[in-house]
């Protein structure tokens, strides 16, 4: 019976995590994972053509899935929306059991050859957060929300990696400050749009924004989403 590719990748990832703290997300780590699982080398490299890079991305995706599962199980109904966003980012970071694996991943994705992969992974995390929390925007706001949250998430992640405080309390305070900054920007933008004296100055930007639409996706394209975009 042929093992599904995703099962093979999960086996390799589980094995690799024991080597990442010592070898990073490297070819040495990938070869060790193959040896530990006893999988055929050709099969492992067919599943992960880029070796440990693919496993690092699978590790990130595993964290995203854990975050979505926790978002489904937690009662966020009475929270302010900004607190829901902060909670989602916190859940995403708390989904990681091994901080060193994330630290090694940050090193990997800081390399020019893999920077695009890292940026895409962060963007997808933030897209999942907005979608799970019910975002239905389909214009330029779809992009600005995700871009803003990507900046917040990235900064908070780096802060978290160096945080030695109890229960990462300093990180959550840092996160709250970053979220407040984003929400303040959104508040100012809304006030300008509502001001009849200032609104004419936004006519051209708003027209351009109206020409932008978010990618069309069905609910089946959103793994574990709580509230798929309509």
UniProtKB/TrEMBL annotation:
User: What is its pathway?
Assistant: Cofactor biosynthesis; ubiquinone biosynthesis
Q: Name one Pfam family in it.
A: COQ9
Q: Does the keyword Transit peptide apply?
A: yes
- Keyword Secreted in the entry? The reply is no
Q: Which residues cross the membrane?
A: none
Ranges for the COQ9 C-terminal domain? 116-186
Segment forming the signal sequence: none
Q: What does the UniProt keyword field contain? A: Lipid-binding, Transit peptide, Ubiquinone biosynthesis
- Function noted in UniProt: Membrane-associated protein that warps the membrane surface to access and bind aromatic isoprenes with high specificity, including ubiquinone (CoQ) isoprene intermediates and presents them directly to COQ7, therefore facilitating the COQ7-mediated hydroxylase step. Participates in the biosynthesis of coenzyme Q, also named ubiquinone, an essential lipid-soluble electron transporter for aerobic cellular respiration.
Family membership: Belongs to the COQ9 family.
Q: Return the NCBIfam families for the record.
A: diverge_rpsU (TIGR02396)
User: What is this protein identified as?
Assistant: COQ9 family protein
């Amino acid at each position: 019976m042929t093992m599904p590719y995703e099962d093979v990748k999960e086996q390799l990832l589980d094995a690799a995590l024991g080597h990442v703290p010592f070898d990073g997300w490297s070819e040495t780590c990938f070869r060790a994972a193959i040896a530990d699982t006893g999988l055929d080398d050709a099969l492992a490299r067919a599943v992960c053509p880029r070796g440990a890079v693919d496993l690092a991305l699978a590790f990130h995706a595993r964290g995203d899935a854990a975050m979505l599962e926790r978002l489904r199980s937690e009662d966020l109904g009475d929270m302010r929306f900004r607190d829901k966003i902060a909670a989602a980012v916190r859940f995403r970071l708390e989904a990681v059991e091994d901080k060193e694996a994330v630290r090694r991943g940050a090193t990997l994705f800081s390399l020019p050859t893999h920077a695009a992969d890292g940026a895409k992974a962060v963007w997808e995390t933030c897209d999942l957060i907005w979608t799970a929390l019910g975002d239905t925007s389909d214009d330029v706001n779809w992009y600005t929300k995700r871009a803003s949250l990507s900046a917040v998430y990235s900064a908070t992640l780096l802060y978290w990696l160096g945080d030695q405080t109890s229960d990462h309390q300093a990180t959550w305070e840092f996160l709250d400050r970053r979220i407040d900054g984003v929400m303040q920007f959104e508040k100012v933008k809304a006030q300008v749009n509502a001001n009849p004296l200032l609104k004419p100055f936004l006519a051209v930007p708003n027209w351009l924004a109206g020409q932008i639409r978010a990618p069309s996706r069905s609910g089946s394209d959103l793994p574990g989403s709580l509230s798929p975009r309509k």
